[in-house]
Amino acid sequence: MTKPRKAHAAVLFSGGTDSTLAAAQMLDECDKVTLLTFDPGFLLFVGNTKVHARKLQAKFGADRVEHQIIDIKHFIRQILGVDVKADLKEFGFNMSSLVCLGCRLSMHSFAIYWCLKNGVAYLADGSIRAQSTVPEQMESVIRRNRRFYSQEYGIRHFSPIYEESESDRRLDELGISGKKRLKKQFILFDTQPTCLFGVPADVYGRLFYGGLVGEQREKDSEQYCAEKYPLMQDVVRNAVLEEGLDVQAAAERLREIRRRDGDLGATQGPGGSPAFDNAYNPEINSR
Fold first, then answer.
1. Residue 125 lies in a domain
2. How far apart are CA 247 and CA 250, in angstroms?
3. What is the CA radius of gyration of the chain?
């Protein structure tokens, strides 16, 4: 029996090969995808994201692929930057990597608000296991985030290419990428912005935080998320209230969409691997 197509999904879109392939896979099972590119205020060349956005529009149709570039400095200030001194005192030099987790949580907060406002029940990103040396792409962090978003807001979160390590090759096969070996680019990119914090965070994660400190990275990430979730809830609630909406009513609207799609309690999401979705489905796993 053919599964019904989902109407609409949002994708956190950096313009890189991972988020572009994630969007392509969501389009396999969704009628429309909105690419959400967030500018936190410390990215260079944000306009690079238009390259792959236009490629996706050319392949799947401009009516099915929308691209929005959104200033989220206010969300960054209220979540990542709310008390930098306290974070540095608590986590020390490990904030070199945790800053990326804080940025991702800020982006997800705006995405949650956007989904509640627009009635979109599905949210995806381009997280991959190969980059799990940085906290925001660790399996444990994804599990916690996924459960939080579903329980609090009714949003189904996907990382549909988590096991993919050659997204540039896959995009080339799909006829989306206009240039080979994009994964080899470093610092300056053809299709995505350069983050002033991302490069040192990645280097620190790969050389030290991702391996040598062992359990400390897990403990830091869990504690950091636990401290940021209440801030995220306050920021999302205030933003939704400014739209004249009630958070609980908006969340129930998204749950109803998922019920209609047969998604609540599902074990596999659009474009995702069954093993990954089984492991991180909030309705199946409570840990």
1. yes
2. 5
3. 18
